């Protein structure tokens, strides 16, 4: 296969943003289906939550494989396969009649996110951008997701209200298909950079990463991010209605989260110019901990829930450009998608844990209070884990830079 033709950075970023934005936003709105699906099928919340947990777990393991594929041969084919898997996953939910059927849908949705989500495309953007623009370029993927999420919640809410939940999912699958043409723009074998650094094998890349303590601190901290994002986005709409509030509160809350996420991710992308990335990550996780406590102590009104969710949005996907850029800082960009895929596996293990526990805890207690406290405690832990990270290239890159 020939190396990819030189394409403008803006075109690669635009195509990647469109693919990632639609892929991730339409996955995040699945929380709107929790009540209608479980009530229609006559099952508890645990089976639906488990299906979403499985999707996140498959996404995590798939991120490494799709990341390797993207780093080695280009992001086009992984992204196209991801789009197709997502379409089939949405369709399988419409024909499911039991919790087991939802699990099959979860597997396909997880594979879809592995190929067309952030992890497979972060390397394509990271390699296309020069080092001084890398964090900002990657941040644009998170901003695109925020914009798409802001639009996706009212879009899907209206589809459910007008068509019913099954036909609306078919419309969602058709919407995802719109990203297929853009996969050609990110296609092609990545160019090998001109450098004095010896090219690594996959095994050597993993060995170097596993021997770097800061890589593990970053990875463990990202577990908490996944716990927060998956649990909150899936269960917030149901939590809102449990408080006797209208469904519109959940929709507006998550729309506010999407808007705030755009701002927060942009600020995170710019922060790398002025602050160390791990320091910003520490602040993000501490802020989340405080806000989760707010959900416990404040009265559950539309103002407090929408306001708290909007503030959480400032610290939502802002972790992704900082975390992925740190991977590039540590090890370079040759295996960036694959190594970030491993870090993202931790994120998805957190997502799996958060969704699984949320379903079990709610069905046992009919309350989310335990989950709010656990989320706050984990936020504090993640902040502490990020504090000692050493933000510098590994010795291999440092020696090459000195030659």
Task: Write the topology of this structure.
Layout: H1 9-28, H2 34-41, H3 45-73, H4 76-95, H5 99-116, H6 118-128, H7 131-163, H8 165-177, H9 202-210, H10 213-242, H11 247-271, H12 277-297, H13 302-313, H14 319-331, H15 336-365, H16 369-386, H17 395-402
Structural notes for this entry:
By secondary structure, this protein is mostly helical. The protein has a single domain (9-402), classed as Up-down Bundle (Growth Hormone, Chain: A), CATH 1.20.1250.20. Helix content is 79%, strand content 0%. The chain contains 17 helices and no strands. The protein has helices spanning 9-28, 34-41, 45-73, 76-95, 99-116, 118-128, 131-163, 165-177, 202-210, 213-242, 247-271, 277-297, 302-313, 319-331, 336-365, 369-386, 395-402. Helix 3 (45-73) runs parallel beside helix 5 (99-116), helix 10 packs parallel to helix 15 and helix 11 (247-271) runs parallel beside helix 13 (302-313). The radius of gyration is 20 Å and the shape is globular. The two termini are 33 Å apart. Mean pLDDT is 88; it is low at 1-5.
């Amino acid at each position: 296969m020939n190396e990819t033709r030189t394409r403008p950075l803006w075109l690669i970023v635009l195509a990647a943003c469109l693919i990632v934005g639609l892929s991730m936003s339409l996955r995040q709105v699945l929380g709107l289906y929790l009540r209608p699906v479980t009530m229609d099928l006559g099952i508890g919340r645990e089976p639906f939550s488990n299906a979403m947990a499985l999707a996140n777990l498959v996404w995590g393991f798939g991120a490494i494989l799709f990341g390797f594929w993207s780093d080695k041969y280009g992001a086009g084919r992984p992204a196209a396969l991801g789009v197709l898997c997502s379409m089939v996953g949405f369709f399988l939910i419409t024909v499911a009649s039991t919790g087991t059927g939802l699990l099959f849908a979860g597997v396909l949705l997880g594979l879809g996110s592995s190929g067309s989500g952030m992890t497979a495309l972060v390397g394509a953007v990271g390699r296309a951008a020069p080092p001084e623009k890398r964090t900002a370029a990657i941040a644009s993927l998170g901003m695109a997701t925020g914009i798409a999420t802001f639009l996706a919640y009212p879009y899907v809410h209206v589809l459910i209200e007008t068509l019913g939940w099954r036909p609306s999912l078919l419309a969602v699958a058709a919407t995802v298909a719109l990203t297929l043409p853009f996969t050609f723009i990110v296609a092609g074998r990545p160019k090998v950079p001109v450098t004095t650094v010896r090219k690594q094998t996959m095994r050597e890349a993993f060995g170097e990463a596993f021997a770097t303590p800061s890589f593990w601190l970053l990875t463990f901290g990202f577990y908490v991010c996944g716990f927060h994002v998956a649990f909150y986005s899936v269960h917030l709409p149901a939590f809102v209605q449990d408080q006797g509030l209208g469904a519109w509160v959940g929709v507006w809350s998550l729309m506010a989260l999407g808007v705030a996420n755009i701002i927060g991710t942009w600020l995170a992308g710019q922060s790398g110019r002025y602050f160390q990335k791990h320091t910003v990550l520490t602040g993000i996780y501490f802020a989340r901990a405080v806000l989760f406590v707010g959900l416990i102590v404040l009265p559950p009104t539309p103002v407090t829930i929408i306001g708290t969710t909007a503030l959480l949005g400032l610290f939502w996907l802002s972790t992704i450009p900082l975390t992925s850029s740190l991977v590039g800082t540590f090890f370079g960009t040759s295996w960036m998608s694959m190594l970030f895929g491993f870090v993202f596996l931790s994120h998805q293990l957190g997502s799996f844990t958060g969704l699984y526990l949320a379903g079990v805890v709610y069905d046992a207690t009919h309350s989310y209070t335990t989950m709010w406290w656990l989320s706050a405690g984990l936020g504090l832990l993640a902040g502490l884990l990020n504090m000692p990270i050493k933000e510098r290239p590994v010795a291999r890159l440092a020696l090459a830079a000195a030659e």
